[in-house]
User: What shape does this take?
Amino acid sequence: MRFPIVLAAVAAATAGSVVAFPFCENDANAVSEVKVYGNQNSALGYQLTIKEGTPPFDPNTPIEILLDGAGMQFSSLQLYVSDSRYSKNHTGKWVDFGSEYTLLDGAQTTPPTANTKFGAADNAGCEKYGKGATLSTTSVDAKKLPAKFHWLPPPNQPAGSLTIWGLVVQDQANGFKVVSAGPISAANPYPAVKSDAATVSVGAAAIVSLVAGVALMSMF
Assistant: This one.
C-alpha cells in the first residue's frame, strides 16, 4: 500500500523552509501522487540541453547543461545523470551551483520507519544512488530561466553512453514536465583524473613565504 509513502513525501515536501525534492528517481507517477507538485504536463515548454559543441566527456571537465523555457519560471526540479531513467546508479556529481540548489544526499535526523520512505528532515536520501549525483532546489519559490548547471563526470569511464534526466515543476496548478538531454558519450581513451599537485605546490610555496616573512619580522 503506497498511501503512507505518499503522506511521508508530502510531509517532506512541505515541512520547514527548505523544500528539496523528496524522490531519487524520475518517476512521474509517484510525483503526481504528491499533490503539491500537480500532475505531469508534457505541454509545458521546458527544455534541457547540453551546451553546443561539448566534446565527449572526461573526468576533468564539467559539462554545462541549460534548462530553458521561453518566458517561463519554475519552482522545483530534480536532475541526475545515468544510463537509464529509472536507474539506481546516478553517476558523476553536480558542482558550482548556487544557494537555490542542494544535493539530495539526505541528512536524516530520524531514520525511516517500516511504513515510511523518508526520515524526518530527510532530502530523499539519494546518496545511496551516488554521492553528490542528484540535484534539487532548496525552496518552491519561483525561479527564473534560463538556468545553468554543471555536471562533473565520474573518475572511471562508464560502460556506455549516459543521459541527463530532469523533472521540472512549474507549480501545483500547472504541474511538472519530465525532460532529458543526451545521450552523451565518454572520451576514448578516458583520461585519468588530474593531480592536484600544482595546487599543493602553490600552497606549500605560500606557507614557506609566510614563515620566511615571520622570521624576518622577528629580527627587528
